[in-house]
Design goal:
With 212 residues, the chain is mainly beta. 8% of the residues lie in helices and 55% in strands. A six-stranded antiparallel β-barrel has the order 1-2-3-7-5-4. It has a six-stranded antiparallel beta barrel with strand order 8-9-10-13-12-11.
Length: 212
């Protein structure tokens, strides 16, 4: 269980985020969390832990957290996470998608992992739709499949910097001698904080305004 999981959120009963954690699973299945030493929690108490697993999706559990053991360097510590109960599981492939239409500045810069070296660009683009797993962008700049891009997404009170990899490219006629290009992208290296904020934003947007 959680052998491939690398990140988790430790939450208060209210759902407030205590801190983000790196997940390590031992050979015996013991789950260890690496957290900032400055994080405040009570040892041997029960907390909700939200695991972001690439196979199982987002899994929330009731867990007992042990006392923390400082790690070399002084900024991080390690603790045992004993899973008491599995509460919810949400598969990533069922991520909700919303239409957005938000304009952003798209950055395309060569990074390790790109298929070939390429020059950098900063061009206007439009977020056509977005989910927690990926985004569909439209731009006048032609980029290749496999290219990595990033952009700042402005939410109501937060700004997220999101990185994505282009999975498919579509040509969109835009008028005489004009073309736009559509990019189906998957998000990469997303922070758990950003994922939580984006998921909340998408859920609230999809639900629409509350009735008075």
């Amino acid at each position: 269980m959680f052998e491939k999981c690398k990140k988790a959120d430790i939450l208060e009963k209210s759902g407030a985020l205590i801190c983000q954690a790196r997940v390590n699973v031992g050979r015996s299945g013991e789950v260890l969390l690496v957290i900032p030493r400055a994080a405040s929690y009570k040892s041997n108490a029960i907390y909700r832990v939200m695991f972001y697993d690439p196979v199982m999706g987002r899994v929330t559990c009731r867990c007992r957290l042990s006392a923390a053991v400082p790690l070399p360097g002084g900024e991080l510590c390690s603790l045992r996470c004993e899973i008491q109960e599995y509460l919810t599981q949400e598969q990533r492939r069922k991520n909700m998608k919303i239409d957005l239409g938000q304009n952003v500045m798209l950055h395309a810069v060569f990074q390790p992992g790109d298929p070939v070296p390429a020059p950098g660009y900063v061009v206007p683009a439009t977020i056509v739709n977005i989910s927690v797993g990926g985004v569909y962008l439209r731009s006048s700049l032609l980029l290749a499949e496999g290219r990595r891009v990033w952009f700042d997404l402005q939410l109501s009170g937060d700004r997220l910097t999101l990185s994505a990899q282009i999975l498919r490219v579509e040509t969109i006629p835009a008028g005489p001698n004009q073309k736009l290009y559509g990019y189906g992208c998957k998000f990469v290296d997303m922070l758990s904080r950003d994922e939580s904020l984006l998921r909340s934003f998408i859920s609230q947007t999809a639900a629409g305004p509350r009735r008075q």
